[in-house]
UniProtKB/TrEMBL annotation:
<dbReference type="InterPro" id="IPR044066">
    <property type="entry name" value="TRIAD_supradom"/>
</dbReference>
<dbReference type="Pfam" id="PF26200">
    <property type="entry name" value="Rcat_RNF216"/>
</dbReference>
<keyword id="KW-0862">Zinc</keyword>
<dbReference type="InterPro" id="IPR003892">
    <property type="entry name" value="CUE"/>
</dbReference>
<dbReference type="InterPro" id="IPR031127">
    <property type="entry name" value="E3_UB_ligase_RBR"/>
</dbReference>
<feature type="domain" description="RING-type">
    <location>
        <begin position="75"/>
        <end position="120"/>
    </location>
</feature>
<keyword id="KW-0863">Zinc-finger</keyword>
<dbReference type="Pfam" id="PF00097">
    <property type="entry name" value="zf-C3HC4"/>
</dbReference>
<dbReference type="InterPro" id="IPR009060">
    <property type="entry name" value="UBA-like_sf"/>
</dbReference>
<dbReference type="Pfam" id="PF02845">
    <property type="entry name" value="CUE"/>
</dbReference>
<dbReference type="Pfam" id="PF01485">
    <property type="entry name" value="IBR"/>
</dbReference>
<dbReference type="InterPro" id="IPR002867">
    <property type="entry name" value="IBR_dom"/>
</dbReference>
<feature type="domain" description="CUE">
    <location>
        <begin position="1"/>
        <end position="43"/>
    </location>
</feature>
<keyword id="KW-0677">Repeat</keyword>
<dbReference type="InterPro" id="IPR041809">
    <property type="entry name" value="CUE2_CUE1"/>
</dbReference>
<keyword id="KW-0479">Metal-binding</keyword>
<dbReference type="InterPro" id="IPR001841">
    <property type="entry name" value="Znf_RING"/>
</dbReference>
């Protein structure tokens, strides 16, 4: 192909390489038919006036660009006179500001939590496009904007919740029944997506509030628990027990004062440690319980592990009685 182009070029020097190549492809690289075809076509010679006009327009364009580059413009934010290359012109509204000012404007809006960034020109309602922010902000600054957009998008989803554990705040998808569990392995906190309290499966939010109120009235913090070092808040084991029960013991005759519906739930889901009398709730696993005091006991009957033999420990079901409740 290249040799044929060179051959034809030597015969018809006014033709461009592209025109010759196109003609060769049309005639399947047949050089004789291509030459005959090209010689039959009129040769368009650029008019001298056209050439001079193009040169003139190019010269004027260069002068215009040079003038723009040498001229200074006023930034309406910082009021500095700067060359045009230091400015950014907004899309659609065409307001222009120096790049430093527009960067600071974007960052100020983002750090204030505004995902819809507007043109800084007074009374202008133009909302900046994603690509414009991407053009101005780089690295961590743009990542901050991306995160803000993501958070605003998640906030519009009625099923999205945020883990309430301090220093976590991970996104959690609420299940239809309102149950939520943090997906972070180091956390794993379970809570209610409706009331944001600790998980209270088996109870409505109103019932859980009633339970908390009665526990505040009829329980006290166990003195043994006060002396015991609690696990770090990011330790999953700290969430095996709801905050309402952690370190609580019944006041004298306190359990007898609990309302009927709440008492039934407590009997089904909690047990007292036979060593320190702390109320322990079971929300998963088998009946083998380990209290914060270190004592091992059976959730089924409330007895210490030493009171069971190896074949019957622990009991497979919980005894439906309050005989083991001590005040």
């Amino acid at each position: 192909m290249e040799s044929n182009i060179s051959t034809i070029k030597s015969l018809l020097p006014d033709l461009s390489d592209k025109d010759i190549k196109d003609a060769l492809e049309s005639f399947n690289n047949n050089i004789e038919e291509t030459i005959n075809y090209l010689m039959s076509q009129p040769v368009v010679v650029e008019d001298e006036n056209d050439r001079l006009f193009k040169e003139f327009m190019k010269s004027e364009q260069e002068k215009l660009e040079k003038g723009h580059n040498e001229r200074s413009y006023l930034c309406s934010i910082c009021y500095d006179d700067l060359p045009i290359q230091d400015f950014y012109i907004m899309d659609e509204c065409y307001h222009r500001f120096c790049i430093d000012c527009i960067q600071q404007h974007y960052l100020s809006q983002i750090r204030s939590g505004y995902s819809d960034i507007k043109c800084p020109q007074n009374l202008c309602k133009y909302k900046v496009k994603y690509q414009e922010v991407q053009h101005i902000l780089k690295g961590k600054d743009f990542d901050l904007y991306d995160q803000l957009l993501f958070n605003h998008s998640m906030a519009k989803d009625k099923n999205v919740r945020y883990c309430p554990v301090p220093n976590c705040s991970s996104i959690v998808i609420s299940q239809p029944d309102g149950s939520c569990q943090c997906p972070v392995p180091e956390c794993g906190y379970e809570f209610c997506g409706f009331c944001r309290n600790a998980s209270h499966s088996g109870m409505t939010c109103a019932q859980f509030e009633e339970l908390q109120e009665e526990l505040r009235t009829y329980t006290v913090t166990n003195t043994f628990y006060k002396k015991t070092k609690r696990p770090n808040h990011m330790d999953p084991s700290s969430y095996l027990f709801r905050p309402s029960f952690s370190g609580k013991s019944w006041k004298k005759d306190g359990f007898d004062m609990v309302s009927g519906a709440t008492k039934v739930w407590i009997l089904k889901n909690t047990q007292q440690c036979p060593h320190c009398k702390t109320i322990v709730e079971k929300n998963m696993g088998c009946n083998s319980m380990a209290c914060h005091c270190g004592h091992l006991f059976c959730f089924g009957c409330g007895k210490s592990r030493e009171q069971h033999n190896n074949y019957t420990y622990p009991c497979s079901t919980k005894l439906k009685t309050d005989a083991h409740i001590t005040n």
